[in-house]
Amino acid sequence: MRLDSETRREIRDAAQRFFGAEVYLFGSRTDDSRKGGDIDLYIEVPMSADEAVRARMAMLGHLYSRIGERKIDLVVNTGGEDRAIFREARQQGHKL
Q1: Is the torsion defined by CA of 88, 63, 10, 29 positive or negative?
Q2: Where are the domains positioned within the chain?
Q3: What is the pTM of this model?
Q4: Which strands form 24-26's sheet, in the order they lie side by side?
Q5: pLDDT, tens digit, for every residue of 19-53?
Q6: Confidence (pLDDT) at 56
């Protein structure tokens, strides 16, 4: 996993603060043999789409202020759909 312990802690804390949920890292950052890449995060939480949008924006703003301006893709599954990206994140994701 290509995230240092401080960055993982900041992401975990933000997920709890803004969603009250666990967060999973998936995508290229889970592969130690690769370089670069954005930070792909997945959260599954039962909330309305409007609440999820507000929480997502708040969490991203908070993370940018704490870990710097990095490319972060935050995927939120509110339970309403079964998308391929959700399945990929659940299958390949690593709990932070």
Answers
A1: positive
A2: 5-95
A3: 0.91
A4: 72-77, 39-44, 24-26, 94-95
A5: 999 999 999 888 766 776 799 999 999 999 999 99
A6: 98
- 81: tokens are 């759909």
For residue 8, the one-letter residue type is: R
Contacts of 2 (CB under 8 A, 6+ apart): 29, 30, 31, 32, 34, 37
Q: Which residues contact 42 (CB under 8 A, 6 or more apart)?
A: 23, 24, 25, 26, 75, 76, 77, 86, 89, 90, 93
- The amino acid present at 87, given as its one-letter code, is R
Q: Which ranges in 1-96 belong to alpha helices (H)?
A: 5-19, 49-67, 84-92
How long is the chain? 96
**What are 26's two structure tokens?**
């998936």
Token digits for 79? 């339970």
CATH label, 5-95, candidates 3.30.460.10, 3.30.1240.10, 3.40.50.1820, 3.30.70.100: 3.30.460.10
Distance, CA of 54 to CA of 36 (rounded, Å)? 28
